[in-house]
Input
Amino acid sequence: MQPTAPAGLDRKEADVYRQLDPERLPKHIAIIMDGNGRWARRRHLPRIAGHRAGVASVRSTVETASRIGIPALTLYAFSEENWKKRPKSEVDFLMGLLCRYLKTELPTLNKNNIRLAYIGRQHELPAVVQEKMRWAREATANNRGMVLTLALNYSARSEIVDAFRSMVEAAANNGGLEHLQIDEDTICRHLYTRQLPDPDLVIRTSGEMRLSNFLLWQLAYAEIYVTPTLWPEFRGVHLLEGIAQYQKRERRYGGLTGDAVQLHNYYHAKTVRSREV
Output
């Protein structure tokens, strides 16, 4: 029996959704939004036209993910490397575009019960942008639906560096560095994404086969789906197609099948609890 499509999906989205197993949807989807420049270049337009067109893709993708009940969606919006590689005029445009997005999309986020979060070195962004980000986050703080995380001025390597700095600082404030304990659980608690589950699925648009310094720790066992679709052309139906491909795969974690990893996690949690007693 095919599942009933959630309200709000268009015909194409509903057709793909009916082929899915609602019980096996990813808990967290991460998307590397790529192809704005190529989209604009193919139309003989400036790069900023591609960025502007990509806003509609964000809206469609976010709303579809929320409607089908995805708990967490993370979008790679602005990398730390963008500061170095892009002209100042383009960076300034992106910052303005972000502020306009937060202002215009806030009613839609609240209507869909979406809570907004950020990862990345936010303190390095312009003060006016930081203020707008705080405003939007606070305005959605009471929502209890999907968590939409925007990766802004983000670098996975910088995140890991910041995590180790945080661990050292915590140990120094708690009796000295001889109390520093480094293991996977400790590192995870100091990452930007400590409030989120690791992504089950990462989607990259534009056909590129790279992670581009995105969530390198968290994507260790994520399924990767690459589509040739350029980001400004990406819509909710493409997200559902990615989920359909995800559901066709046998999930493996470091050589373990899904059943085995559940058993592994059960005994791991049991061991941790016994240590805490």
